[in-house]
Amino acid sequence: MTALVLSALAFLFAFAIYFAVLAGRRTAPGAFLDAGSALPPWALMFAGAGVTVGGLGLHDHFLLTAVYGLQYSHVALGLTLAALCGAMAHKRL
C-alpha cells in the first residue's frame, strides 16, 4: 500500500470520527433510532428493511442462496413484511 493511499484512508477515518463525535454531541441517543420521530412510518419501514438486508454481506447472500436456493428470496420479502408490521406498531404506540 502506498503512502498516498494510506494517508487518504487515515484522513477519511479521521473525518468520519470527527463528524460522528460532532453528531453525537448535538443529538440525544434516542434520536438515532427514528430521527426523533420526524420520519414518516413508511420511510422507517423501507429503511429498516434495507438496513437489515444490507447488513448481510454480499458473500452471505450468495451463501444463503447456495444453501436454500431460490427460496432465499422469501427472506427479503419476510424482512419487508416484518418492517411493515414494526412500522405499524410503532405508529400505534
Give the structure's gist in a few sentences:
The chain is an all-alpha fold and 93 residues long. It has two domains: 1-31; 39-93. It is built from five helices and no strands.
SSE diagram, text form:
Blueprint: H1 3-26, H2 31-34, H3 41-55, H4 58-68, H5 73-92
Question: Could you walk me through the main structural features you see in this protein, from its secondary elements to its overall organization?
Answer:
The longest helix has 24 residues, at 3-26. The chain folds into 2 domains: 1-31; 39-93. It has helices spanning 3-26, 31-34, 41-55, 58-68, 73-92. 80% of the residues lie in helices and 0% in strands. The protein has 93 residues and is mainly α. The mean pLDDT is 75. The chain contains 5 helices and no strands. The termini are far apart.
Strand-pairing-aware structural class: mainly alpha
Beta-strand share of residues: under 5%
SSE sequence, one letter per element: HHHHH
Number of strands: 0
Biggest sheet: strands, sense, closure? none
The structural domain count equals: 2
Shape: flat
Contiguous runs where pLDDT drops below 50 for at least 5 residues? none
Q: Give the radius of gyration.
A: 18 Å
Distance between the termini: 52 Å
Overall average residue pLDDT: 75
The oligomeric state of the chains shown is single chain
Helix content: over 70%
Number of helices: 5
From the structure above, extract its key features.
93 residues, 5 helices, 2 domains, mainly alpha
